[in-house]
Design goal:
Residues 37-180 form the Lipocalin/cytosolic fatty-acid binding domain. With 189 residues, the protein is an alpha+beta fold. It has helices spanning 3-17, 38-41, 156-169; strands at residues 22-24, 43-50, 59-67, 73-80, 86-97, 100-107, 115-122, 127-136, 140-149, 177-178. It is built from three helices and ten strands.
């Protein structure tokens, strides 16, 4: 085993303890929403399900997107922590390739490379399916997935359809965690 392979195995083992989705190999191919309309996507989305992520630990998670005058998108993620305080982070998203406007890069910290943000599917009014995947050294990849909704709940039929889309990409939907959207009354961004 090479040093890089050993490093990859150690990182995978350590990350697994935190519930993160690390995998050996390269990111699977994913399609994105055809004819994506960023203006229709703007507004608030509530997190319904997600792959575990070390940086998302609260409840009542939501994301608000707003078009900026320079064509980029303001991204504000918020949730309520276990002590009742609201945690938020502000970032910016930009289209990576104008021929695929549903394939964005998002950044929350200056000097840090953009993270992929792929809108796989959305009807703009009720649901959105977002996938993100980053390759590391050709040895392993880290992926994230979110099922989002315009309300704090989605029907089982829609969730099952989105699970099918994730499965087609190669995502193990058994790893998805239902997001806690209870006791959120009075909370808004």
């Amino acid at each position: 085993m090479t040093t890089l392979q050993l490093l990859g195995v150690l990182l995978l083992t350590a990350a697994s303890a935190k519930g993160q989705s690390y995998h050996l190999g390269r990111c699977p191919e994913s399609t994105v929403q055809e004819d994506f309309n960023a203006a229709k996507y703007m507004g608030t989305w509530y997190e319904i399900e997600k792959l575990p992520a070390w940086f998302q630990t609260g409840r009542c998670a939501q994301a608000t997107y707003s078009l900026l005058s320079d064509g980029t998108v303001s991204v504000r993620n918020e949730n309520i922590l276990s002590d009742g305080t609201v945690a938020s982070i502000q970032g910016t998203a930009r289209v990576i390739d104008p021929s695929q406007p549903a394939n964005l890069g998002v950044s929350f910290f200056k000097g840090v490379p953009d993270a992929p943000y792929m809108v796989v599917s959305t009807d703009y009014q009720s649901y959105a399916l977002v996938y993100s995947c980053s390759d590391y050294f050709g040895l392993f990849y880290i992926d994230f997935a979110w099922i989002l909704a315009r309300s704090r709940a989605l029907t089982d039929d829609i969730i099952n359809q989105l699970h099918d889309k994730l499965t087609a990409i190669g995502v193990d939907v058994n790893r998805l965690k239902v997001s806690n959207q209870t006791a959120c009354d009075g909370y808004s961004q």
